[in-house]
Please model this.
Amino acid sequence: MAASYDFPSDLLAGQEELHRIRAELLALLKHLPWSVEPLDGFSDDNGWRKVERPASPGWTDDEQTQVERLRHRERELAVFVSGHDFWTEVTTEHKVTARMHLKHTPAPEPH
Model:
């Protein structure tokens, strides 16, 4: 039988926001040009597979600010979740299992 954990609401909220921020960052990065700085396109077929990139206009200042804001918040939340006082209550041999449960715990329904 799998163990269940009574995660505190602030830890659950932090994990939920961490998932949301990571998804938002990934979606943003997928739509940005491949290079932060403007660069010419290139084609290289000297490796084990051909690599081609179109010219990149680079990221705007606003896009760079958005990415940095999301990365900063992601770091804050990762530190909050991993350093939460709850983890002092979990025995060493159960910490990995508890962490995996937290990562996969669905968000609580709003009341």
Residues 16 and 107 are 6 Å apart (CA to CA). The first strand starts at residue 42 and ends at 44.
